[in-house]
Amino acid sequence: MRRSRIRRTLTRLAVTVIVLALVVVGTVAAALGWGVYRDRQDLSAHVPPRPAEVAYSPAIGAVTATNQPSPAGVTAQIAAALRNPDLGDLTGVIADAATGTVLWQRDAARPRTPASTTKVLTAAAALLTLPADKRITTTVVTGSAPGEAVLVGAGDPTLRSGTASIFTDAPSIEDLAAQVRRSGTAITRVVVDTSLFTGTDFGRGWDRADIGGGDVTPLQSLIMDSGRIRPGEDYSPRVPDPALAAGRALASALDLPPTAVSAGTAPRGGTRLAAVQSAPLSVRLHDALVHSDNVLAESIGREVAAAAGQPLSFDGSTRAVIDTLRNAGFDMTGVELSDVDGLSTLNRIPARVLDGIVTAAAGTGKPQLRPLLDLLPVAGATGTLADRYVTVNRPGAGYVRAKTGSLSGVSTLAGYVATRDGAVLTFTLMSSGTPVDVARPAMDAVTAALRGCGCR
């Protein structure tokens, strides 16, 4: 009973925070002067009332010279939180999203291990180069021998088997199998083709233990459920052979034994027997950032590489992401990437680069980046921030949106917060030298304090 009551309490809290976050989205749009689309129908009639426990007024005053946050005001507001030794070796930057003015910084140009905040760079590069409605098509074609079906990987790790999936609108192996059956072609063998991606399938700075730990699977162009053994769980252990696992799932759906699966390549001119499409890029980016899915982020990096004419490899995707952002006007000095998802311990990104991208997304100069703001988890409600800002640092719940990053001894946070006075502040905090479970609430306290600005 006690566990059920706790679950109901947390559910009510999450619903409350999500409703609050929707209000904050409107607040941010108004504060930054974004246009708001309105249908001819009055949408307000369909919006449920805010839960009683949320005491919030969405009214925003105009940003003027007298109510803009100031460096002195921000420094004073976060001073107590910054004295916490749990922050370890901290670098960071806080900026006014409306003007781009840096309001606080600490060693912001020093390259640090970014962990999963690397995904901010990958998402930004994808938004700058790829259509939001871009989809990936996974196909089954006839093989070179009679009875052979080739499952051709196209780089979509959201392909699922069964009904459980953490991904939105994921295509299914069962759909492929049904199409193959309808084609009337008798199949006795399944071949998996992973030739699209080149180079090694395991990144420099990755640890093989992270396969069983639920963080990654070898990056192949054919992956099912991002390699998860339990597809509905974010941190399920992964398979060590994702392409063959996908082939075995297709074989099973066609009533073939696992021994009927092998690796190979599709012949030129093979007849297409089946095809399924991924969700649009906009949806896949959301899933990659909210769930901090390393495999999906890395696969999207391959799409950026393809658009840039680079090899579909770790080297190609890292080069493409850096070059895309540099060509868009970002100073990439100090950025070194061995992957584009952040699992590599060899990555280095200065805090100023991460915050510069978030600030650009909030500003008017790069409207292509605007969707990035809505891809970030909501404090106390969604994704990797769902269980943060809940029991402590509650002022930030619903008002902070940020990408998290965690490796052993490394904690990072990059995003933005709507302040009580109607300003929007961007921030990047990068900590090392203290345990993750210690550093996280200490960083959250800094951003929760920003919610209380004022700061004039």
TrEMBL record:
Segments crossing the lipid bilayer: none
InterPro entries, per database record: Beta-lactam/transpept-like, Peptidase_S13
Keywords: Carboxypeptidase, Hydrolase, Protease
Gene3D superfamilies listed in its UniProt record: D-Ala-D-Ala carboxypeptidase C, peptidase S13 (3.50.80.20), DD-peptidase/beta-lactamase superfamily (3.40.710.10)
Enzyme class: hydrolase
Molecular function GO terms recorded: serine-type D-Ala-D-Ala carboxypeptidase activity
Presence of the UniProt keyword Hydrolase in the record: yes
Presence of keyword Nucleotide-binding: no
EC number(s) from the headed UniProt entry: 3.4.16.4
UniProt-recorded name of the protein: D-alanyl-D-alanine carboxypeptidase/D-alanyl-D-alanine-endopeptidase
Protein's organism: Tsukamurella spumae
Lineage: Bacteria, Bacillati, Actinomycetota, Actinomycetes, Mycobacteriales
Gene: dacB
